[in-house]
Amino acid sequence: MSNINQEVIRTYDIYIAEYLSLNWRQIFPEVVIREVASGTCITVQCRDQSELHGIIRIISKLGLTLQTIIMQGFLDDSFKEKSAGMRSQTDETTHV
């Protein structure tokens, strides 16, 4: 019998246009921040959609440019890399 209350934690890659320094980990605790061709990828784990929405609100309040959110396991890595490369050719980015 499955447990209905079992907590599912999903991992999301959040791509933003700006290049963020590692000091931003103070604002985004327990995340992985890495530079990609199109800016920065912030990898977060969320228990539910409201937690993900809270992170998106923080990104918005900080004036950062949200490009893409991809749930890990939803799309294969080749698509993510192709998508990141296409964004880098068309978007201007800034270092923050």
Describe this structure in words.
Helices cover 28% and strands 27% of the residues. The protein is an alpha+beta fold. The protein has one domain: Alpha-Beta Plaits. Strands 2-3-1-4 form a 4-stranded antiparallel beta sheet.
Based on CA atoms alone, the radius of gyration comes out at 14 Å
First-last Cα distance: 50 Å
For the sheet with most strands, the description reads:
4 strands, antiparallel
Helix content: 25-40%
Q: How many discrete structural domains?
A: 1
What share of the residues does DSSP label as strand, in percent? Answer: 25-35%
Second rung of CATH, namely the architecture: 2-Layer Sandwich
Would you give the CATH topology? Answer: Alpha-Beta Plaits
Structural class: alpha+beta
What is the CATH first-level class name? Alpha Beta
Mean pLDDT: 79
Tally of strands: 4
Q: What sort of overall outline do the alpha carbons produce when their principal axes are compared? A: globular
Taking pLDDT < 50 over at least 5 consecutive residues as the criterion, the unreliable ranges are: 86-96
How many DSSP helices?
2
Q: What is the N-to-C succession of helices and strands?
A: EEEHEH
Spatial strand order of the main sheet: 2-3-1-4
